[in-house]
Structures are given as C-alpha cells and as structure tokens.
Design brief:
The complex is a heterodimer of chains A (about 350) and B (about 170). Chain A is mainly α and about 350 residues long. Chain A is built from twelve helices and two strands; from the N terminus they run αααββααααααααα. Chain A has helices spanning about 1-35, 50-60, 70-90, 115-135, 140-170, 175-180, 190-195, 195-210, 220-225, 235-260, 275-300, 310-335, and strands at about 100, 105. The longest helix of chain A has about 35 residues, at about 1-35. Chain A is globular, with a radius of gyration of 21 Å. Chain B is of the alpha+beta class. In chain B, about 25% of the residues lie in helices and about 20% in strands. Chain B has six helices and seven strands; from the N terminus they run H-H-E-E-H-E-E-H-E-E-H-E-H. Chain B has helices spanning about 15-20, 20-35, 75-80, 115-120, 145-150, 155-165, and strands spanning about 60-65, 70, 85-90, 100-105, 125-130, 145, 150. Chain B is elongated, with a radius of gyration of 28 Å. The relative contact order of chain B is 0.17. Classes of the chains: A mainly alpha (about 350), B alpha+beta (about 170). The interface of A and B includes residues 33, 299 and 301 of A. The complex binds iron/sulfur cluster (SF4) (2 copies). One iron/sulfur cluster binds near residues 80, 82, 83, 85 and 112 of chain B.
Chain lengths: ~350, ~170
Amino acid sequence: MDILISLIKIIVYLGVLLFTVSYLVLVERRVSAFIQNRIGPNRVGYKGLLQPIADVLKLMIKEDIVPKLAYKPLHRLAPIISIVVALSTFAVIPFGDKIVLFGQEIKLQIASVNVGILYILALTSIGVYGIALAGWASNNKYSLLGGLRSSAQIISYELSMGLSIIGVILISGTLELDKIVEAQSGWRWFIFLQPVGFITFFVSVFAETNRLPFDLPEAEPELVGGYHTEYTGLKFGLFFLAEYANMITASAIVTTLYLGGWQFPYLNTFGISDFWLSIIQILTFISKVLIVIMFMIVIRWTVPRFRYDQLMNLGWKWMLPLSLANVIVTALIIYLVE
Amino acid sequence: MNKINRKVVRTEDLNFWQKLYIPEILKGMKITIRQMFLPKFTRQYPEEKWIPPPSFRGRPVLVEENGKERCVACGLCSRVCPALAIEVQAAETELSKERYPVKFEINMLRCIFCGLCEEACPEEAIVMSKDYELTFFSQEEAIFGKDKLLMPIDELKDRLEFLRKYR
Ligand code: SF4
Ligand code: SF4
C-alpha cells in the first residue's frame, strides 16, 4: 500500500511539475514581454495558452544534430543528467503537512529523507556535471567555455549556499525538511530569524540556477548559447526544461527553508476541518513558490549580467565571508540563549 | 602613463547603501514592475494594419484614370530605374501621336522602392502607393503586369496631393 501511495504521489508530482515547467516558460515570456511594453505570445489558443504545447511539438519534430567531432555518449548523457537532477531534487520537498484521503493518511512529501538538505546539496552539485559535460562533449570552444564557467561559478557559490543553510540547521536542529518547516510555525519564518542567511542563500540560488544576473554559462552575446550551443531538438528541450525545473525547485527550496514552507501563520486557530486545512496548506506552498518565481523573473529583467571577475569577487569576497559570519553569529546567539 | 591600467576615478562615490547593492536592486525592480502596467506598443499585425502616411513609398503603381492608364509609354521610368525593374513596350493608339503601353511590367523582386520612376514620369502616371504587403511563392509571380499595377486614382489621392505639395 505504501509503495502504491508513493507511486501515485510520484506520478502526480511529475505531472504537475512538468506541466508547471512548460507553463513557466510561457509565463516568463509573457511577463518579460509586459516588462518591455510588448504583449508576448498570444496566438496559439486562447491568449496563447496552448503555446507550450506548440513549443514542445516543434522541439520534438526538429532534426537532432550531433556534431561530427562530439563525444557521442557524453553528448547524449549530458541533457539526461541535467533533467534527472532537476526533477529528482523536488522529491524531498514537503508541499503540505498530511492529508487524509479515503481513510489513508498521506504525507505530502515523496521521500521524507532524514538528511533532506544534504540530499538537495548533493543533487545540485551533480547538476553541474550535466552542464560541464555538455560543454566538453560538444567539442566547441563556446560550449566548453560555458561549461567551465558554470562549474567555476557553481563551485564558488555552493560554499556560501551551504554555509547559509547551516544557519537554518542550527536554529531548527534538524536536517529533515519537514521538521524544518514545522519549526517555522506562526511567524517564526527563517527569513525573519536569518535575514543575512536568506540574502546570501537567495543570491547563491540565482548563481546555482544560472539565472540572470549570473547566467554566464549561457551568456548569449558572448558565448553564442553557452553549453547548449551544439544541441538541437529534444535534447535542447531537455536542457531548457531542466533550467526551468531548476528554477521551480530552487524557489521551492527557498520557500521551504526560509519562507515557512506550507505554513500559513496561525491557520489551525481558525477552526477549519482537517481536509481543508491540508488544501489551504498546499495552496499556500504553491503561491509562495509562485511569488519567489515571479521575483526571480523580475530580477532577470532588472539587473544586468555580471562580468566574470565581478561574479568571482562577489562570490569569494562578499558572499563567503558574509555567510561565514552569519553562521558564527547565529551559533554564538544560540549558545548564549541556551 | 599607461592608458589601460589607469585607475578609474569616480566623480561621485557610491554611498554605503548604494554599495550594499540590494536597496538599489529593489528600486530597479520597482521600475521594472511599473513598466508592466504601461500601455503596450505591440500592433497585432494581420488584424490591425498600419496605414502609412502619404510620404511613404510602397510598391509603385500605375495611375488609372477613367478606366485607362495615364502612362504614355515614354519609357523614362524604365530608363531611370536603378534596379532595371521596369519593362515598357509602347504601341500607338487610334489617336495620332498618342501612345500607350501594351506591356508594362515591374519586377517586384528587383524594385528597391527608391521612387525614381515616380520622379521621372512626366505624366504623373506612376506613383508610389501605400501597399507594403508583397508576398509571392515564385519568381514569376513577382513580375507584376498591368493587371496588378493599375490602381484607380481615388485610392492614390493622398500621394498625388503630397507630390504636388512637396515636389
Ligand atoms: S521605385 Fe525605383 S527601383 Fe522601383 S521601379 Fe521605380 S525606379 Fe525602379
Ligand atoms: S515615365 Fe510615366 S509615362 Fe513614361 S513610361 Fe513610365 S509611367 Fe509611362
């Protein structure tokens, strides 16, 4: 029974995630169009709502070109790594507390791993393999540059990302994501307890997901397309999907760690039945994630791209010391309070 | 002094809050979000067409007056055309000393919309219209004969007036 429930959860979540990813592309295009005083894609279906389907169909029909001198096995493997990592990170994120359906109590989290945060950190580090291997296997100088940039960038920002999370772990005293969310009941969201940690983490998230202002691995004006220059058709589509899936996952992680996850402040004092409580919690989680995503999109059209040295400067000279100081101060305060 | 390694001197130093960068980003986001609610510039093209001003040089057409072309087949437009797009073949009418073009063709793939034919024409018989939608599926289709070139004078009033005023 447990396995069946898990399977159903996985299927539902995969469906929802893939659906959201494809529509996120549309949302991004529409929002960026609005920011630039344009209208954006509005032709396919009502107000362009079928645009993602058209895009996917186009990508599937396109010819799959593999460069002659590319190292084929890795060239094929790289997009798969990217998408698998992007999708599987979501498995440990709790998107609600518990829900009782058909007399079964279901935990709204696919895998309650007791080292959830470590799992996330480990998987996001694997994600860089997808990009670096794609760059290397394409046998193209621009791709290679993109791949290398990405590995350097992700390695530098992973440090400050990990260190900022330590602040959260210190306060909540656990690595399990559902426990971390539970620790943020009421208004005890970690964004208020850990403002500096939140900022360093959020900035690192931008770098980890290769979003502007840190999208150096695929900087179009400099590197043609970066690591996916030599990819066409569905393989390119996988990279594209992975990028947006990463964005959703990153927003979900930010929500879980700092914005109280599915917690709706003082919801259980309103006296709502358990079932609706769970529904509201899920909706709370979704809307929080959407807000973070919107924030990321607006940032993209606000801040220009960093130069490479500026990126490294920011990472090593500001983010790392800041997050280190944050850990030390948090630890000191906890030590003094207890 | 080495020009490349010269230190950049800012006339105005950033203050503490500006150096923090984050308040400035938030300010920038405010501007970005404000942009979203401004009126859009997009024209929904096939439904919403642009009507050019009379000074616009669209595809050259022959003026049709009283069901006949004004052209007297002098061949000046064909001579002046820098792209060699026009071909005129003259024939005589029943009236003495009057000619008309039996064949008048403009190759729209060659035409560069310079408007020299219009300037050279002594009869105001060829003018630039407002038509800018030119699509064809083959090269043959792109050669416009008299059937496609003739346009009633009523539709060309704007341009003729413009020419009288400014030429
Ligand atoms: S507009 Fe210029 S190129 Fe076109 S037919 Fe007239 S003279 Fe020739
Ligand atoms: S210059 Fe005018 S009158 Fe002469 S052939 Fe051309 S269109 Fe006809």
